[in-house]
Amino acid sequence: MLTRRVFLAATLALAALPAWAQDKLDLTILHTNDLHGHTLPFAYTEPERSKDEQPSVGGAARRATLIRELKKKAKNPVMVIDLGDVATRGPLTNAYEGIADIEALNATGYDIGTIGNNEFKLKDAAERFDAAGAQNALLQVLRRSHFPWVCANAGVGEAAKGELIPGVHPYLVREINGVRVGFLGLTAPRSNGYPQVKGWWVGDPVEAAKKWVPIVRKNCDVLVALTHVGVDDDKKIAEVPGIDAIVGGDSHTFLYKAVEVNGVPIVQTGEFGVNLGKFDLHFAKTPAGGWKLASYDYALLPITSKLKEARDVKAVADAYAAPLKNGPGVLLPKRFLGATPDERTRRTSEAVALALAKATNAEIGLHVEGDGFFDVFRTATLTRYDIWAVMPFKNKVATLTMTGAELAELKQKNKGLILSAPASDPTRLYTVALVDFTATGTLKLDASRLSVGGDLREAVIAGLGKL
């Protein structure tokens, strides 16, 4: 028996369009996935398009311009959908716990959002065990969204009771030109192991599809699964009878052509908003009076610097970025600026290692090349935004004492390990500064040996100021 909540979700019609008798429906889905807080433009290398790093791609304001241009030109209904992991990893995400990213989507005019595994991680790194805080942050994001969210396989309390996340629908139905189009949401099951999910549950998406597809099909004519499970699980979900198409995310897969399984096309844009997906679905009425997907067209449209930035969306993004971008910068010595992507990663790691030593008065700063980085230092004057872009998570700086022999062994076992100064005496104890995540996560050092200090980013700023 359907509960009242599920029934309401199933019958929800979003801005229903006028209906008339017809034999076909053309629907365009413009979609993004795994934006990961890349609200402002950034440098990126997309190997399939270019071997060279592009200095400025993506960004919510450019994407909004393209979306609006496509909607203006379209001769059929268009929906704009995100497939999860809107937040985390970007410089604005942890500063505002996802709100800046969502407000950019609000200004753009998204129609539906899908819960990704990183929506559960709005408290992360040093705060990852604050389950109540992470869950409240997600609920706040949901409340601030001007569009509904879908996810049928995650909820609160005990999984056996099946209570879904407050404010999230298992599915939605939109009546478009007289045809009922269903959208079923599914998310990645590994979220269930996160400390932030304590007291909540995340179920198997394939099993959830088997449960929910028959329910949704009773209330719709065609069904599109909106997933954040990765292409491999999408292929399993495509085997569930009753699904017409799958728009996915999670695996950061650049699908320049749709993957078909069981006649069901699967699409995904890659990552970070480098591309916008354009999925044109052409449905036809069957002789029996039902509906089927007759054909489709698909393309990944790059978001490049050739696109103008939509002023309203840019204003939203800039307002959130301003506190991190304004104010005095920190000077970075030229020796820490590389000419190539690999060189920049190396030099940024060297700068961080030395900065941590300076900030803590340790004899040696240690870093593993690129560990925990999501960007690199690119200019001689760094703002907080630049440093947050490289290290977005709220990790801590830590210190410990190690012998020269221990450090030599670590360096032998860990390719790319960087020491800001030599540890030439194998028997001597050195004070060493490093990132707490690098210590316990990457190097597997005993946490009891660490003296954990303050915020990593603030330590790097302080240390760079002493160079």
CATH class of the largest domain: Alpha Beta
The CATH superfamily of the largest domain appears as Metallo-dependent phosphatases
Could you tell me the mean pLDDT? Answer: 95
Reported CATH architecture of the largest domain: 4-Layer Sandwich
Shape: elongated
Radius of gyration: 24 Å
Compute the number of structural domains: 2
Task: Write down how many β-strands occur, each being a DSSP E stretch of 2 or more residues.
Answer: 24
Q: DSSP strand (E) fraction?
A: 25-35%
User: Number of helical runs?
Assistant: 13
Largest sheet: 7 strands, mixed
Helix content: 25-40%
Structural class comes to: alpha/beta
Task: Kindly identify the CATH topology of the largest domain.
Answer: Purple Acid Phosphatase, chain A, domain 2
Strand order of the largest sheet: 8-6-5-4-1-16-17
Our measurement of the CA-to-CA distance between the termini, rounded to an integer number of angstroms, reads 68 Å
pLDDT < 50 runs, ≥5 residues: 1-21
GO molecular function: hydrolase activity; nucleotide binding
Family: Belongs to the 5'-nucleotidase family.
Keywords: Hydrolase, Nucleotide-binding, Signal
Signal peptide: 1-21
